[in-house]
Design goal:
Strand order of the largest sheet of chain A: 1-2-3-4-5
Radius of gyration of chain B: 26 Å
Oligomer: heterodimer
Number of domains of chain A: 1
Distance between the termini of chain B: 40 Å
CATH superfamily of chain A: Tgt2/MlaC
Number of helices of chain B: 16
Number of helices of chain A: 6
Radius of gyration of chain A: 17 Å
Largest sheet of chain A: 5 strands, antiparallel
Shape of chain B: globular
Structural class of chain A: alpha+beta
Helix content of chain A: 40-55%
Order of helices and strands of chain A: HHHHHEEEEEH
Number of strands of chain B: 9
């Protein structure tokens, strides 16, 4: 139903979104750096999952999350997701928002990783111009290919992700429409409350 | 779950502390000019996005749409999901359900052929037609997908909504249909048009029980392959209605523009900074070029294989083909296999920074055993998608 594909895509974004660290930038090419991150995470998952539907041991979460935080520019993602509203909040609120948004993405992503069942990630090509790059990949499962595209920016020779596009659906834009609609109805504090609730709920569920 | 959380909590607190530390430390250290450079960069990206693709849709029916959205949501959780879960238990082998899925996809080939033609995509139409012929014959009424797997024919997924979009017709308003889910005025017209080319539609319309049964199986089969996806999507969103609406519009837009498949069509944007645009394509792994060598990881190729690794092992064996970049990883995989009592690495092919290799694994006649074997290998780090059955 409901274009389940879109949904899958969005979710696989998080999957692919992963990793890096091990990369230590052997090269400055965005595709290589992105691939190093993703491979590093996939390796952790493959080596430590007892079976395809098993859960990762808790201590591995830090390893994976570190790789994610190293490759994703959560601040830029937050700014882009809030768009015009970013300017209306003060620095402290901005920092807090980045923390919450990153946390939300981290939780979602980690769930995704935990449901890993043998998917392969194939990197296809990169497009680069000045300090921006677009890297495309597909997640392959059962011969079904889900296209995942990363948008990256270069910061001190390191390529950082600021948006992920799964089957044509941009993560940042998707959140922006939701944030816009919440802020319109409940103002900014309402949004923060919603973020906090979602994160808290997750912690309790565990 | 509870136990896991207990184990997690220590690492978790540490991580949390670390994150908080980083976040609180960062802004203090950051120079002011870097902040304003960031702001300028963000403005730039937002501007590019606004110009590149303005993805919004009018939703005057929102109150009604929301009612149907909730209806569909309940339909999923109360009916579709339980049924699909039971169905999944019966057809527990995912491969079997993939076969059904292939067959349903194959049935819709007329829709794709016609819409490729309507959009002037003759190559796409030819590919779809060829795939339809191959899969309906060699692929046994479409249950298997040799057109894609063996002949490398890429799908060119087109429908009438996309055709209308390619003619410059906009979405119109957003509509959330009961049972059918998100759509737009344009895509609703498209869906109706496509139904005219759908054999299942005629079967059900003629009142045949088989028609309804197949329609039902089509939906349930689809859901069974994707259980958990909708739940995760919902979990990650704040207003699922808005999230789905936006995802639908973005997804359809990229389909109309045929940009889903590559980075190039997304573009890096104009931006304010100059510089040459540069495109690099990854070398695609090609299993057709596997070379057999005597002993694993030694030099001389002794035999070139034309088709795939399946050609080089006896029937009743599984062949796994891995692709690894680092020699160290290959060694690691080999050791792991040897540890698991799997001795023979039978094929290896290297090109610049990639290495492909295959291992043979006794499959035996018993499918369950073979399947278990496959799972073991996946756990051992082999890509499930590169398993070649022989």
């Amino acid at each position: 139903m409901i274009r389940a594909k879109v949904v899958i895509t969005l979710m696989s974004i998080y999957l692919v979104a992963a990793g890096m660290s091990v990369a230590t930038a052997a090269t400055s090419e965005p595709m290589d750096q992105m691939k190093a991150s993703v491979d590093a995470i996939l390796n952790i998952v493959r080596e430590n999952k007892v079976n395809m539907h098993g859960e990762l041991a808790g201590s591995l979460r830090k390893q994976i999350v570190d790789i994610v935080y190293d490759r994703f520019d959560f601040r830029a993602m937050s700014q882009l997701a809030l768009a015009k509203n970013w300017k209306t909040i003060n620095t402290k609120e901005q920092d807090h928002f980045v923390f919450l948004f990153a946390k939300l993405l981290e939780n979602t992503y980690y769930d995704r990783i935990n449901s890993y069942s043998g998917e392969e990630v194939v990197f296809k090509e990169q497009q680069k111009k000045a300090d921006k790059a677009v890297v495309s990949s597909v997640v392959v499962r059962n011969n079904v290919e889900t296209p995942v595209v990363y948008k990256l920016r270069s910061k001190n020779d390191k390529w950082l992700v600021y948006d992920v596009i799964i089957e044509g659906v941009s993560l940042v834009r998707n959140y922006r429409t939701q944030f816009d609609s919440i802020i319109e109805k409940e103002k900014y504090p309402g949004l923060v409350k919603r973020l906090e609730e979602k994160i808290d709920k997750k912690e309790v569920d565990k | 779950m509870r136990k896991l959380w207990d184990e997690l909590s220590t690492a978790w607190v540490l991580l949390l502390a670390l994150v908080i530390f980083q976040l609180s430390a960062a802004p203090a250290v950051k120079a002011l000019d870097e902040d304003s450079a960031d702001d300028a960069w963000v403005e730039d990206v937002l501007e590019v996005q606004a110009v590149e693709n303005n993805v919004t849709i009018a939703d005057p029916l929102e109150p009604l749409n929301r009612v149907f959205f909730v209806f569909n949501d309940k339909l999923y959780f109360w009916l579709l999901k339980p049924v699909a879960t039971g169905y999944k238990a019966v057809f527990s082998d995912e491969d079997v359900r993939m076969c059904f899925s292939n067959a349903f996809h194959n049935l819709l080939a007329p829709v794709r052929v016609v819409n490729n033609v309507l959009q002037g995509k003759m190559v796409g139409a030819g590919t779809e037609l060829a795939a339809f012929v191959i899969n309906s014959t060699v692929g046994i009424v479409g249950l298997a997908d040799p057109a894609h797997k063996e002949f490398g024919l890429a799908v060119s997924d087109e429908d009438f909504g996309q055709t209308l979009g390619s003619y410059g017709i906009g979405n119109g308003i957003y509509v959330c249909w009961p049972f059918l889910g998100p759509s737009s005025l344009r895509d609703t017209v498209g869906t109706v048009g496509d139904a005219m080319l759908d054999p299942l539609f005629y079967l059900s319309a003629s009142g045949e029980t088989a028609g309804y049964a197949l329609q039902g199986d089509k939906q349930v089969n689809k859901v069974s392959l994707n259980i958990g996806e909708y739940e995760r999507f919902k979990e990650a969103s704040f207003d699922p209605y808005v999230a789905v609406r936006n995802a639908y519009v973005q997804h359809r837009r990229s389909k109309v523009r045929d940009e889903i498949d590559g980075a190039v069509s997304y573009g890096v944007g104009q931006g304010k900074k100059g510089g040459e645009k540069e495109i690099v394509k990854a070398t695609p792994p090609r299993s057709a070029e596997i070379v057999v060598i005597d002993a694993p990881l030694k030099k001389k190729p002794v035999k070139k294989v034309s088709q795939s690794a399946a050609d080089i092992v006896a029937p009743g064996y599984y062949v796994l083909v891995g692709v690894y970049r680092e020699p160290a990883n290959i060694e690691q995989q080999k050791n792991r296999l040897n540890g698991a009592g799997i001795k023979s690495v039978v094929a290896q092919y290297r090109r610049s920074d990639y290495a492909f290799y295959g291992v043979e694994v006794p499959g035996g006649g018993d499918f369950v055993t073979a399947k278990q074997r496959e799972n073991e290998l996946v756990v051992a780090g082999f890509p499930a998608t590169m398993v070649v059955r022989h």
